[in-house]
Amino acid sequence: MKTSIIILAYDKLDYTKLCIESIRKYTNPGEYEIIVAGEKPNIDTKSWFKEQNDIVTIFNEDNMKFSRVINDGIKIASGDNILLLDNDTVVTPRWLDNLTTCLYNLKKNGAVGAVTNSGPYYQVIDAACKNVDEAADFAEQYNRSNPDLWEEKLRLNGFCLLIKKEVIDKVGLLDERFTPGICEADDYSFRIRIAGYSLVLCKDTFIYHFNTNIFNYQLIVENEKKFEEKWKFNLRYSTGVRQEIINLIDTPKDKKINVLEIGCACGGTLLKIRDIYKNADIYGIELNIGAAQIAQSFAEIKKGDIENEPLDYPDNFFDYIIFADVLEHLNNPWVVLTNIKKCIKPEGCVLASIPNIMHYSVLRGLINGYWTYEEAGILDRTHLRFFTLNEIDKMFKDTGYQILACFWTLLYKTAADENFISQLNELTGKNLTSQYEAYQYIIKAKNIAGVEDTLSKALTETNIKEDKNANRDLKFLLRRIENGVKTQESMEKVIELINNKKYMDDIVAVIMNDIIEREKIISLVWLECCKYGLFDNAMELRKKYHAY
Is the pTM of this model over 0.70? Predict the structure, then answer.
Protein backbone atom coordinates (compact mmCIF):
# COMPACT_ATOMS: atom_id res chain seq x y z
CA MET A 1 0.00 0.00 0.00
CA LYS A 2 1.34 3.40 -1.02
CA THR A 3 0.81 6.78 0.64
CA SER A 4 1.21 10.09 -1.14
CA ILE A 5 2.62 12.58 1.38
CA ILE A 6 1.74 16.12 0.34
CA ILE A 7 3.80 18.76 2.16
CA LEU A 8 2.80 22.39 2.05
CA ALA A 9 5.98 24.52 1.97
CA TYR A 10 6.30 28.31 1.98
CA ASP A 11 10.03 29.02 1.81
CA LYS A 12 10.70 27.71 5.32
CA LEU A 13 13.43 25.55 3.82
CA ASP A 14 15.14 24.62 7.10
CA TYR A 15 11.87 23.22 8.48
CA THR A 16 11.05 21.51 5.20
CA LYS A 17 14.44 19.77 5.17
CA LEU A 18 13.92 18.47 8.72
CA CYS A 19 10.46 17.22 7.79
CA ILE A 20 11.63 15.39 4.68
CA GLU A 21 14.68 13.93 6.40
CA SER A 22 12.47 12.53 9.15
CA ILE A 23 10.13 10.94 6.56
CA ARG A 24 13.08 9.26 4.86
CA LYS A 25 14.41 8.05 8.20
CA TYR A 26 11.21 6.72 9.77
CA THR A 27 9.12 5.53 6.81
CA ASN A 28 9.51 2.28 4.89
CA PRO A 29 11.04 2.82 1.41
CA GLY A 30 8.69 2.09 -1.46
CA GLU A 31 5.58 2.72 0.66
CA TYR A 32 5.37 6.47 0.06
CA GLU A 33 5.95 9.32 -2.36
CA ILE A 34 6.65 12.92 -1.39
CA ILE A 35 4.92 15.79 -3.16
CA VAL A 36 5.93 19.29 -2.05
CA ALA A 37 3.44 22.00 -2.93
CA GLY A 38 3.89 25.71 -2.36
CA GLU A 39 4.08 29.21 -3.70
CA LYS A 40 6.86 30.52 -5.95
CA PRO A 41 10.14 29.54 -4.22
CA ASN A 42 13.23 31.63 -3.71
CA ILE A 43 16.51 30.66 -5.40
CA ASP A 44 17.90 28.62 -2.48
CA THR A 45 14.71 26.59 -2.14
CA LYS A 46 14.48 25.94 -5.87
CA SER A 47 18.12 24.88 -6.00
CA TRP A 48 17.80 22.45 -3.10
CA PHE A 49 14.76 20.70 -4.54
CA LYS A 50 16.47 20.25 -7.90
CA GLU A 51 19.00 18.04 -6.13
CA GLN A 52 16.33 15.75 -4.64
CA ASN A 53 15.50 12.73 -6.77
CA ASP A 54 12.67 11.35 -4.64
CA ILE A 55 10.49 14.49 -4.45
CA VAL A 56 7.86 15.85 -6.84
CA THR A 57 7.39 19.62 -6.56
CA ILE A 58 4.47 21.85 -7.49
CA PHE A 59 5.38 25.51 -7.18
CA ASN A 60 2.62 27.89 -8.16
CA GLU A 61 4.16 30.81 -9.98
CA ASP A 62 1.08 32.95 -9.29
CA ASN A 63 1.45 32.44 -5.53
CA MET A 64 -2.04 30.94 -5.21
CA LYS A 65 -1.80 29.63 -1.68
CA PHE A 66 -2.69 26.60 0.37
CA SER A 67 -5.92 24.94 -0.80
CA ARG A 68 -5.16 25.48 -4.49
CA VAL A 69 -1.65 24.00 -4.36
CA ILE A 70 -2.73 21.17 -2.05
CA ASN A 71 -5.47 20.29 -4.53
CA ASP A 72 -2.91 20.33 -7.32
CA GLY A 73 -0.83 17.88 -5.31
CA ILE A 74 -3.81 15.59 -4.72
CA LYS A 75 -4.57 15.53 -8.44
CA ILE A 76 -1.16 14.08 -9.32
CA ALA A 77 -0.89 11.75 -6.31
CA SER A 78 -0.62 8.04 -7.14
CA GLY A 79 -1.04 6.60 -3.63
CA ASP A 80 -3.86 4.56 -2.10
CA ASN A 81 -3.94 7.16 0.66
CA ILE A 82 -3.27 10.89 0.81
CA LEU A 83 -1.43 12.37 3.78
CA LEU A 84 -1.52 16.14 4.29
CA LEU A 85 1.50 17.24 6.31
CA ASP A 86 2.69 20.68 7.43
CA ASN A 87 6.32 21.33 6.64
CA ASP A 88 7.06 22.41 10.22
CA THR A 89 6.51 18.87 11.50
CA VAL A 90 9.00 16.10 12.19
CA VAL A 91 7.71 12.54 11.98
CA THR A 92 8.82 9.78 14.32
CA PRO A 93 9.33 6.00 14.56
CA ARG A 94 6.41 3.87 13.26
CA TRP A 95 4.28 6.94 12.63
CA LEU A 96 2.83 5.95 9.25
CA ASP A 97 2.44 2.26 10.12
CA ASN A 98 0.38 3.21 13.18
CA LEU A 99 -1.80 5.69 11.28
CA THR A 100 -2.42 3.24 8.44
CA THR A 101 -3.29 0.42 10.85
CA CYS A 102 -5.95 2.59 12.45
CA LEU A 103 -7.27 3.92 9.13
CA TYR A 104 -7.97 0.42 7.82
CA ASN A 105 -9.15 -1.04 11.11
CA LEU A 106 -12.75 -0.27 10.12
CA LYS A 107 -14.25 0.25 6.68
CA LYS A 108 -16.09 3.34 7.95
CA ASN A 109 -12.85 5.09 8.96
CA GLY A 110 -12.25 7.87 6.46
CA ALA A 111 -9.37 9.85 7.92
CA VAL A 112 -7.05 9.68 10.93
CA GLY A 113 -4.71 12.10 12.69
CA ALA A 114 -1.82 12.04 15.16
CA VAL A 115 -1.25 13.74 18.50
CA THR A 116 1.46 16.34 18.89
CA ASN A 117 3.15 18.77 21.25
CA SER A 118 1.62 21.95 19.77
CA GLY A 119 -1.63 22.45 17.90
CA PRO A 120 -5.42 22.83 18.26
CA TYR A 121 -8.51 20.60 18.45
CA TYR A 122 -7.70 18.43 21.44
CA GLN A 123 -4.78 16.79 19.62
CA VAL A 124 -2.07 18.09 21.96
CA ILE A 125 -0.51 15.91 24.65
CA ASP A 126 1.98 16.72 27.39
CA ALA A 127 4.98 15.24 25.60
CA ALA A 128 8.27 14.92 27.45
CA CYS A 129 10.36 16.51 24.70
CA LYS A 130 11.74 19.96 23.97
CA ASN A 131 13.44 19.40 20.62
CA VAL A 132 13.60 17.05 17.63
CA ASP A 133 16.05 14.58 19.19
CA GLU A 134 14.02 14.30 22.38
CA ALA A 135 10.86 13.89 20.28
CA ALA A 136 12.34 10.85 18.54
CA ASP A 137 13.32 9.30 21.88
CA PHE A 138 9.88 10.00 23.32
CA ALA A 139 8.10 8.55 20.27
CA GLU A 140 10.27 5.44 20.29
CA GLN A 141 8.51 4.46 23.49
CA TYR A 142 5.19 6.19 22.87
CA ASN A 143 4.35 5.05 19.32
CA ARG A 144 2.97 1.58 20.07
CA SER A 145 -0.14 0.71 18.08
CA ASN A 146 -3.01 0.34 20.53
CA PRO A 147 -6.71 0.26 19.51
CA ASP A 148 -7.67 1.33 23.03
CA LEU A 149 -6.07 4.69 22.23
CA TRP A 150 -8.10 5.37 19.08
CA GLU A 151 -10.74 8.04 19.63
CA GLU A 152 -13.44 9.08 17.18
CA LYS A 153 -13.40 12.87 16.82
CA LEU A 154 -15.76 15.47 15.51
CA ARG A 155 -13.01 17.04 13.41
CA LEU A 156 -9.27 16.70 12.84
CA ASN A 157 -6.56 19.27 12.24
CA GLY A 158 -4.72 19.32 8.92
CA PHE A 159 -1.13 19.42 10.26
CA CYS A 160 -1.02 15.61 9.84
CA LEU A 161 -4.10 14.10 8.22
CA LEU A 162 -4.15 10.66 6.55
CA ILE A 163 -7.14 10.15 4.22
CA LYS A 164 -8.22 7.16 2.15
CA LYS A 165 -8.08 7.98 -1.56
CA GLU A 166 -11.57 6.50 -1.99
CA VAL A 167 -12.83 9.12 0.48
CA ILE A 168 -11.28 11.96 -1.52
CA ASP A 169 -12.80 10.52 -4.70
CA LYS A 170 -16.20 10.64 -3.02
CA VAL A 171 -15.89 13.90 -1.08
CA GLY A 172 -13.87 15.93 -3.57
CA LEU A 173 -10.98 18.35 -3.15
CA LEU A 174 -10.42 21.01 -0.49
CA ASP A 175 -12.75 24.00 -0.67
CA GLU A 176 -10.58 26.79 -2.05
CA ARG A 177 -12.74 29.53 -0.57
CA PHE A 178 -10.81 29.00 2.69
CA THR A 179 -7.43 29.94 1.18
CA PRO A 180 -4.94 30.63 2.70
CA GLY A 181 -5.61 27.94 5.23
CA ILE A 182 -8.04 28.59 8.07
CA CYS A 183 -11.15 26.36 8.49
CA GLU A 184 -10.38 24.22 5.43
CA ALA A 185 -9.64 21.14 7.59
CA ASP A 186 -12.84 21.73 9.59
CA ASP A 187 -14.84 21.98 6.40
CA TYR A 188 -13.22 18.83 5.03
CA SER A 189 -13.78 16.95 8.30
CA PHE A 190 -17.50 17.64 8.18
CA ARG A 191 -17.73 16.73 4.49
CA ILE A 192 -16.09 13.39 5.30
CA ARG A 193 -18.59 12.83 8.10
CA ILE A 194 -21.62 13.61 5.94
CA ALA A 195 -20.29 11.18 3.32
CA GLY A 196 -20.67 8.43 5.94
CA TYR A 197 -17.12 8.08 7.23
CA SER A 198 -15.59 8.45 10.70
CA LEU A 199 -12.63 10.57 11.85
CA VAL A 200 -10.25 8.97 14.34
CA LEU A 201 -7.49 10.45 16.48
CA CYS A 202 -4.60 8.02 16.97
CA LYS A 203 -3.52 8.78 20.51
CA ASP A 204 -0.88 6.08 20.05
CA THR A 205 1.01 8.12 17.43
CA PHE A 206 3.05 11.25 18.19
CA ILE A 207 4.76 13.59 15.76
CA TYR A 208 6.65 16.76 16.63
CA HIS A 209 5.20 20.11 15.54
CA PHE A 210 7.12 23.39 15.61
CA ASN A 211 3.82 25.20 14.88
CA THR A 212 5.41 28.19 13.15
CA ASN A 213 2.13 29.52 11.73
CA ILE A 214 1.70 33.21 12.46
CA PHE A 215 -1.55 34.06 14.26
CA ASN A 216 -3.70 36.14 11.93
CA TYR A 217 -6.82 37.18 13.82
CA GLN A 218 -8.39 38.97 10.86
CA LEU A 219 -8.00 35.91 8.64
CA ILE A 220 -9.53 33.68 11.32
CA VAL A 221 -12.55 36.00 11.60
CA GLU A 222 -13.00 36.17 7.83
CA ASN A 223 -12.77 32.42 7.27
CA GLU A 224 -14.97 31.57 10.24
CA LYS A 225 -17.56 33.87 8.69
CA LYS A 226 -17.18 32.02 5.37
CA PHE A 227 -17.59 28.75 7.23
CA GLU A 228 -20.79 29.97 8.91
CA GLU A 229 -22.19 31.16 5.61
CA LYS A 230 -21.59 27.72 4.11
CA TRP A 231 -22.65 25.48 6.99
CA LYS A 232 -25.19 27.76 8.74
CA PHE A 233 -23.68 27.34 12.20
CA ASN A 234 -20.88 28.98 14.16
CA LEU A 235 -17.78 26.78 14.14
CA ARG A 236 -16.40 27.83 17.51
CA TYR A 237 -19.72 27.74 19.37
CA SER A 238 -21.02 24.49 17.91
CA THR A 239 -18.04 22.14 18.08
CA GLY A 240 -16.81 22.38 21.65
CA VAL A 241 -16.58 19.59 24.23
CA ARG A 242 -17.99 20.40 27.67
CA GLN A 243 -15.59 18.39 29.79
CA GLU A 244 -16.80 20.03 33.00
CA ILE A 245 -20.26 18.60 32.27
CA ILE A 246 -18.88 15.16 31.43
CA ASN A 247 -16.96 15.14 34.72
CA LEU A 248 -20.29 15.04 36.57
CA ILE A 249 -21.09 11.60 35.16
CA ASP A 250 -20.07 9.06 37.78
CA THR A 251 -21.53 5.86 36.33
CA PRO A 252 -19.10 2.90 36.05
CA LYS A 253 -17.48 3.15 32.63
CA ASP A 254 -18.57 -0.32 31.52
CA LYS A 255 -22.26 0.19 32.38
CA LYS A 256 -24.83 0.77 29.65
CA ILE A 257 -26.25 4.28 29.91
CA ASN A 258 -28.58 6.44 27.82
CA VAL A 259 -27.62 10.11 27.51
CA LEU A 260 -29.66 12.92 25.93
CA GLU A 261 -28.24 16.39 25.26
CA ILE A 262 -30.69 19.21 24.68
CA GLY A 263 -29.09 21.70 22.30
CA CYS A 264 -26.29 19.31 21.36
CA ALA A 265 -25.00 21.44 18.44
CA CYS A 266 -22.60 19.25 16.40
CA GLY A 267 -22.44 16.69 19.20
CA GLY A 268 -18.86 17.11 20.42
CA THR A 269 -19.80 16.47 24.05
CA LEU A 270 -21.91 13.42 23.18
CA LEU A 271 -19.08 11.95 21.10
CA LYS A 272 -16.64 12.39 23.99
CA ILE A 273 -19.10 10.71 26.37
CA ARG A 274 -19.31 7.71 24.06
CA ASP A 275 -15.52 7.51 23.94
CA ILE A 276 -15.32 7.36 27.75
CA TYR A 277 -18.45 5.25 28.28
CA LYS A 278 -18.18 2.62 25.54
CA ASN A 279 -21.68 1.25 26.20
CA ALA A 280 -23.39 4.64 26.12
CA ASP A 281 -26.25 5.24 23.69
CA ILE A 282 -26.24 8.94 22.81
CA TYR A 283 -29.17 11.10 21.74
CA GLY A 284 -29.61 14.77 21.00
CA ILE A 285 -32.10 17.50 20.20
CA GLU A 286 -30.80 20.41 18.13
CA LEU A 287 -32.57 23.42 16.64
CA ASN A 288 -29.87 24.30 14.08
CA ILE A 289 -30.34 22.05 11.04
CA GLY A 290 -26.71 22.32 9.89
CA ALA A 291 -25.25 21.37 13.26
CA ALA A 292 -27.82 18.58 13.70
CA GLN A 293 -26.74 17.11 10.36
CA ILE A 294 -23.19 16.70 11.66
CA ALA A 295 -24.31 15.14 14.95
CA GLN A 296 -26.55 12.71 13.05
CA SER A 297 -23.43 11.08 11.60
CA PHE A 298 -22.81 9.30 14.93
CA ALA A 299 -25.83 9.84 17.23
CA GLU A 300 -29.61 9.67 17.17
CA ILE A 301 -30.56 13.30 16.72
CA LYS A 302 -33.94 15.01 16.50
CA LYS A 303 -34.08 18.38 14.76
CA GLY A 304 -36.38 20.71 16.61
CA ASP A 305 -37.22 23.02 19.49
CA ILE A 306 -37.44 21.39 22.94
CA GLU A 307 -40.25 23.81 23.89
CA ASN A 308 -42.41 23.04 20.88
CA GLU A 309 -41.61 19.46 19.88
CA PRO A 310 -43.16 16.40 21.59
CA LEU A 311 -40.82 14.29 23.72
CA ASP A 312 -41.46 10.89 22.16
CA TYR A 313 -38.84 9.01 24.18
CA PRO A 314 -39.81 6.06 26.42
CA ASP A 315 -40.62 6.76 30.06
CA ASN A 316 -37.78 6.23 32.57
CA PHE A 317 -35.26 5.95 29.70
CA PHE A 318 -32.37 8.35 30.25
CA ASP A 319 -29.65 8.13 32.86
CA TYR A 320 -28.54 11.70 32.11
CA ILE A 321 -30.09 14.67 30.32
CA ILE A 322 -27.70 17.55 29.57
CA PHE A 323 -28.52 21.25 29.29
CA ALA A 324 -25.19 22.93 28.48
CA ASP A 325 -25.90 26.68 28.26
CA VAL A 326 -29.51 26.02 27.21
CA LEU A 327 -31.92 26.75 30.09
CA GLU A 328 -31.24 30.49 29.94
CA HIS A 329 -32.30 30.50 26.27
CA LEU A 330 -35.76 29.03 26.94
CA ASN A 331 -39.01 30.90 27.38
CA ASN A 332 -40.04 28.58 30.20
CA PRO A 333 -37.22 26.40 31.53
CA TRP A 334 -39.42 25.37 34.48
CA VAL A 335 -41.92 23.70 32.15
CA VAL A 336 -39.15 21.98 30.16
CA LEU A 337 -37.51 20.60 33.32
CA THR A 338 -40.90 19.34 34.47
CA ASN A 339 -41.80 17.78 31.11
CA ILE A 340 -38.57 15.84 30.71
CA LYS A 341 -38.90 14.16 34.11
CA LYS A 342 -41.00 11.38 32.67
CA CYS A 343 -38.07 10.42 30.40
CA ILE A 344 -35.52 10.26 33.22
CA LYS A 345 -34.94 7.11 35.23
CA PRO A 346 -35.88 7.38 38.92
CA GLU A 347 -32.19 7.61 39.79
CA GLY A 348 -31.36 9.69 36.69
CA CYS A 349 -29.82 13.18 36.69
CA VAL A 350 -29.92 16.48 34.86
CA LEU A 351 -26.51 18.03 34.13
CA ALA A 352 -26.54 21.76 33.38
CA SER A 353 -24.36 24.82 32.99
CA ILE A 354 -26.05 28.15 33.77
CA PRO A 355 -24.56 31.69 33.68
CA ASN A 356 -24.54 33.64 36.94
CA ILE A 357 -26.24 37.03 36.67
CA MET A 358 -24.77 37.90 40.07
CA HIS A 359 -21.23 37.97 38.62
CA TYR A 360 -19.30 41.05 39.68
CA SER A 361 -18.88 42.23 36.06
CA VAL A 362 -22.65 42.41 35.59
CA LEU A 363 -23.26 44.11 38.95
CA ARG A 364 -20.57 46.71 38.27
CA GLY A 365 -22.20 47.60 34.97
CA LEU A 366 -25.67 47.66 36.50
CA ILE A 367 -24.88 50.05 39.36
CA ASN A 368 -23.25 52.33 36.78
CA GLY A 369 -26.42 52.29 34.69
CA TYR A 370 -25.51 49.64 32.10
CA TRP A 371 -27.19 46.39 31.08
CA THR A 372 -25.63 45.99 27.67
CA TYR A 373 -26.38 42.85 25.68
CA GLU A 374 -23.43 41.20 23.94
CA GLU A 375 -22.76 38.59 21.27
CA ALA A 376 -21.67 36.08 23.92
CA GLY A 377 -21.29 35.83 27.68
CA ILE A 378 -23.64 36.32 30.63
CA LEU A 379 -25.54 39.09 28.85
CA ASP A 380 -25.74 37.23 25.55
CA ARG A 381 -28.48 38.93 23.55
CA THR A 382 -30.20 35.56 23.01
CA HIS A 383 -30.62 34.89 26.76
CA LEU A 384 -34.22 35.07 27.92
CA ARG A 385 -33.83 34.06 31.57
CA PHE A 386 -31.30 35.08 34.23
CA PHE A 387 -30.34 33.20 37.39
CA THR A 388 -28.47 33.57 40.66
CA LEU A 389 -27.36 30.59 42.74
CA ASN A 390 -30.48 30.80 44.92
CA GLU A 391 -32.78 30.98 41.90
CA ILE A 392 -31.06 27.97 40.32
CA ASP A 393 -31.57 26.00 43.51
CA LYS A 394 -35.21 27.09 43.68
CA MET A 395 -35.88 26.22 40.03
CA PHE A 396 -34.64 22.67 40.45
CA LYS A 397 -36.48 22.17 43.74
CA ASP A 398 -39.73 23.55 42.32
CA THR A 399 -39.53 21.16 39.35
CA GLY A 400 -38.85 18.06 41.41
CA TYR A 401 -35.06 17.75 41.47
CA GLN A 402 -32.45 17.68 44.18
CA ILE A 403 -29.08 19.32 43.51
CA LEU A 404 -26.32 16.81 44.20
CA ALA A 405 -23.32 18.90 43.13
CA CYS A 406 -22.64 22.51 42.28
CA PHE A 407 -19.38 23.86 40.92
CA TRP A 408 -18.51 27.04 39.09
CA THR A 409 -16.12 28.52 36.57
CA LEU A 410 -14.07 31.64 37.22
CA LEU A 411 -12.57 34.49 35.25
CA TYR A 412 -9.25 36.20 35.90
CA LYS A 413 -9.68 38.98 38.48
CA THR A 414 -7.71 42.21 38.72
CA ALA A 415 -6.96 44.02 41.98
CA ALA A 416 -9.79 46.42 41.09
CA ASP A 417 -12.18 43.47 40.71
CA GLU A 418 -11.22 42.09 44.12
CA ASN A 419 -11.66 45.53 45.69
CA PHE A 420 -15.12 45.84 44.11
CA ILE A 421 -16.14 42.43 45.49
CA SER A 422 -14.99 43.49 48.97
CA GLN A 423 -17.13 46.63 48.71
CA LEU A 424 -20.14 44.50 47.72
CA ASN A 425 -19.61 42.33 50.80
CA GLU A 426 -19.44 45.42 53.00
CA LEU A 427 -22.62 46.76 51.43
CA THR A 428 -24.63 43.58 52.01
CA GLY A 429 -23.07 42.70 55.34
CA LYS A 430 -22.54 39.15 54.05
CA ASN A 431 -19.53 37.36 52.63
CA LEU A 432 -20.90 36.40 49.20
CA THR A 433 -17.52 36.42 47.46
CA SER A 434 -17.98 33.03 45.78
CA GLN A 435 -21.34 34.09 44.32
CA TYR A 436 -19.85 37.31 42.94
CA GLU A 437 -16.90 35.40 41.45
CA ALA A 438 -18.86 32.54 39.86
CA TYR A 439 -19.12 33.13 36.12
CA GLN A 440 -21.12 30.00 35.40
CA TYR A 441 -22.58 27.29 37.63
CA ILE A 442 -22.19 23.62 36.76
CA ILE A 443 -25.09 21.67 38.25
CA LYS A 444 -25.89 18.01 38.81
CA ALA A 445 -29.50 17.48 39.91
CA LYS A 446 -31.24 14.19 40.65
CA ASN A 447 -34.78 13.27 39.71
CA ILE A 448 -36.33 12.52 43.12
CA ALA A 449 -39.51 10.90 41.78
CA GLY A 450 -38.29 7.41 42.68
CA VAL A 451 -37.77 7.91 46.41
CA GLU A 452 -40.38 5.92 48.34
CA ASP A 453 -41.84 6.44 51.79
CA THR A 454 -40.81 2.90 52.75
CA LEU A 455 -37.20 4.02 52.63
CA SER A 456 -37.90 6.64 55.27
CA LYS A 457 -39.49 4.02 57.48
CA ALA A 458 -36.61 1.59 57.06
CA LEU A 459 -34.03 4.25 57.83
CA THR A 460 -35.94 5.41 60.87
CA GLU A 461 -36.24 1.88 62.26
CA THR A 462 -32.56 1.28 61.68
CA ASN A 463 -31.18 4.51 63.05
CA ILE A 464 -33.56 5.81 65.67
CA LYS A 465 -32.42 3.11 68.11
CA GLU A 466 -28.84 4.33 67.96
CA ASP A 467 -27.26 6.34 70.74
CA LYS A 468 -28.03 10.06 70.81
CA ASN A 469 -24.50 11.37 70.58
CA ALA A 470 -23.51 13.76 67.80
CA ASN A 471 -22.02 11.11 65.53
CA ARG A 472 -25.16 8.99 65.70
CA ASP A 473 -27.42 11.95 65.04
CA LEU A 474 -25.26 13.06 62.12
CA LYS A 475 -25.20 9.58 60.63
CA PHE A 476 -28.99 9.43 60.77
CA LEU A 477 -29.46 12.89 59.28
CA LEU A 478 -26.90 12.48 56.51
CA ARG A 479 -28.24 9.07 55.52
CA ARG A 480 -31.70 10.57 55.20
CA ILE A 481 -30.30 13.34 53.00
CA GLU A 482 -28.40 10.80 50.89
CA ASN A 483 -31.63 8.92 50.17
CA GLY A 484 -33.87 11.94 49.69
CA VAL A 485 -35.92 11.41 52.84
CA LYS A 486 -37.13 14.59 54.62
CA THR A 487 -34.17 16.30 53.02
CA GLN A 488 -34.84 19.90 54.00
CA GLU A 489 -35.72 19.09 57.61
CA SER A 490 -32.59 16.96 57.99
CA MET A 491 -30.40 19.53 56.27
CA GLU A 492 -31.52 22.30 58.58
CA LYS A 493 -30.43 20.23 61.59
CA VAL A 494 -27.06 19.52 59.95
CA ILE A 495 -26.57 23.24 59.30
CA GLU A 496 -27.23 23.93 62.98
CA LEU A 497 -24.39 21.57 63.85
CA ILE A 498 -22.08 23.07 61.20
CA ASN A 499 -22.74 26.52 62.64
CA ASN A 500 -21.15 25.14 65.81
CA LYS A 501 -17.70 24.47 64.41
CA LYS A 502 -16.77 21.93 67.07
CA TYR A 503 -18.81 19.33 65.14
CA MET A 504 -16.97 19.90 61.85
CA ASP A 505 -14.62 16.93 62.26
CA ASP A 506 -17.54 14.69 63.22
CA ILE A 507 -19.45 15.65 60.08
CA VAL A 508 -16.49 14.89 57.82
CA ALA A 509 -15.83 11.60 59.62
CA VAL A 510 -19.44 10.45 59.14
CA ILE A 511 -19.43 11.37 55.45
CA MET A 512 -16.18 9.50 54.85
CA ASN A 513 -17.05 6.39 56.90
CA ASP A 514 -20.81 5.96 56.71
CA ILE A 515 -22.01 7.56 53.48
CA ILE A 516 -21.81 5.92 50.05
CA GLU A 517 -22.33 8.99 47.83
CA ARG A 518 -19.73 11.12 49.59
CA GLU A 519 -19.21 13.75 46.88
CA LYS A 520 -22.96 14.19 46.52
CA ILE A 521 -23.44 14.82 50.25
CA ILE A 522 -20.45 17.11 50.70
CA SER A 523 -21.66 19.17 47.73
CA LEU A 524 -25.20 19.38 49.08
CA VAL A 525 -24.06 20.43 52.54
CA TRP A 526 -21.59 22.90 51.04
CA LEU A 527 -24.32 24.44 48.88
CA GLU A 528 -26.66 24.77 51.85
CA CYS A 529 -23.92 26.49 53.87
CA CYS A 530 -23.53 29.03 51.07
CA LYS A 531 -27.29 29.69 51.06
CA TYR A 532 -27.12 30.56 54.76
CA GLY A 533 -24.04 32.73 54.29
CA LEU A 534 -21.78 30.30 56.21
CA PHE A 535 -18.97 30.62 53.70
CA ASP A 536 -16.11 30.21 56.17
CA ASN A 537 -17.75 27.05 57.48
CA ALA A 538 -18.27 25.79 53.92
CA MET A 539 -14.64 26.37 53.00
CA GLU A 540 -13.41 24.70 56.20
CA LEU A 541 -15.71 21.73 55.57
CA ARG A 542 -14.35 21.25 52.03
CA LYS A 543 -10.77 21.63 53.27
CA LYS A 544 -11.23 18.99 55.96
CA TYR A 545 -13.04 16.69 53.53
CA HIS A 546 -10.20 16.77 50.98
CA ALA A 547 -7.58 16.40 53.69
CA TYR A 548 -9.28 13.41 55.33
Answer: yes
